[in-house]
Design brief:
mainly alpha
């Protein structure tokens, strides 16, 4: 059951990436390019992409797993903040990401970091 929810969550995130990119002013097709789409997502939510390099090659396996888990828990909150939503939407995104990621990407989210520049 947990594995199915995880797989649905990953699929929902990848289906939602073109919507996130479009709202942030990037070309939607960049969401379909593997690895590069995660780099652009990190740029959109204002996380240094070097963190991906640290996770990928720089850490010992148990530390890497812990670090990736912490990032996985915080990403829904950061995405909900980047798309001008409150902490409740972040909690809902953490709990039911297969519903909330597409909802934020294509319906309710408005990218706010462009407005601050």
């Amino acid at each position: 059951m947990l594995k199915t929810i995880f797989i649905l969550s990953v699929i929902a995130l990848y289906v939602s990436l073109p919507g996130f990119f479009n709202k942030a002013g990037y070309n939607s097709f960049k969401g379909l390019i593997p690895i590069y789409n995660i780099y652009i997502l990190m740029d959109i939510i204002k996380i240094n992409p070097i963190i991906l390099l640290i996770i990928g090659v720089g850490l010992i396996a148990p530390i890497r797993i812990l670090f990736a888990t912490v990032i996985t828990i915080f990403i829904p909150f950061i995405i909900s903040d980047a798309y001008d939503k409150n902490i409740l939407i972040g909690i809902l995104t953490l709990l039911i990401p297969f519903i909330m990621y597409p909802l934020i990407a294509y319906k309710i989210g408005v990218y706010r970091y462009n407005l601050e520049d």
